Amino acid sequence: MTKKTGNQGRKPSVLDSFKPLLIDVAVPLGSYYLLKEAFGTSTFAALAWSSVVPAVRTVWGLVKERRTNGLAGLILVVNVVSLLLSFLSGDPRLMLAKDSGVSSTVAIGILVSVWLGKPMMTEGMKPFLVKGDADKEAAWQRMMSGAAAESAAFRSKERAFSVVWGLALLAECVARVVGAYTVPVDTMVWLGTVFLIAAMAIAFVVSGGLAVEPMERMLAAETEAGREQQPTLAAAA
């Protein structure tokens, strides 16, 4: 029996599971608000620097993996559009409202991806459910391909996960725009960040109960069923 060394055989941590979502979404959005609010950089500079990670991820996906990274690409497009819009009027309320373009474009992209049958948030959720387990990976593939008994229910929950996040970010956008023209500018500067954090917290809780937990149970049941079939298939062979 070969002894596994280094990182081989190590069970992925929670951080490992959420890494794709953190890199593609949280890092670009977080760096934008950190640079702008904490370090006082201009909107243009904050957008430019926060575009580095999604730009690298998008190019890497195209060159090395021969596929597009949906989340990273969407964040990059949002930042480029926002850079162009930053040349508009210097009206402070317009600038505050313009910040909602980040979350609104991401939200619309997520909802459109559900409509197209390729929910964008799945890429960030899958590692959390599979956790690097080969049996769970196989069960996931059976669920997604329609080969498992509960495939339809599983795919429905997969779509629901992305819908919850899309609607939460869209609601955050609406709240930010309304606040930009009704709340004092000094208050809205920090309140906008509160809106974003609240939207993400609500999406995390709602999507967890509505989609992640049921999907985790279905995946566990399918994984167990697959393990029980392995001896039978081996004997038949």
Task: Tell me what the structure shows.
The chain is mainly alpha-helical. It has ten helices and no strands. Helix 2 runs antiparallel to helix 4 (70-85), helix 6 (100-115) runs antiparallel to helix 9 (151-182) and helix 8 packs across helix 10 (185-236). The protein is elongated. The chain starts with 13 loop residues before the first helix and ends with a helix. The model is unreliable at 1-18 (pLDDT under 50).
Write the layout of secondary structure elements.
Blueprint: H1 14-38, H2 43-50, H3 52-63, H4 70-85, H5 92-98, H6 100-115, H7 122-130, H8 134-145, H9 151-182, H10 185-236
Helix pairs in contact: 1-2, 1-3, 1-7, 2-4, 3-4, 4-6, 5-9, 6-9, 8-9, 8-10, 9-10
Tally the helices: what do you get? 10
* Share in β-strands: under 5%
Extract low-pLDDT stretches. 1-18
Give the termini distance in whole angstroms. Answer: 24 Å
What order do the helices and strands follow? HHHHHHHHHH
Report on the biggest sheet.
Answer: none
In short:
The protein is mostly helical and 237 residues long.
List descriptors.
disordered N terminus; mainly alpha; 10 helices; 237 residues
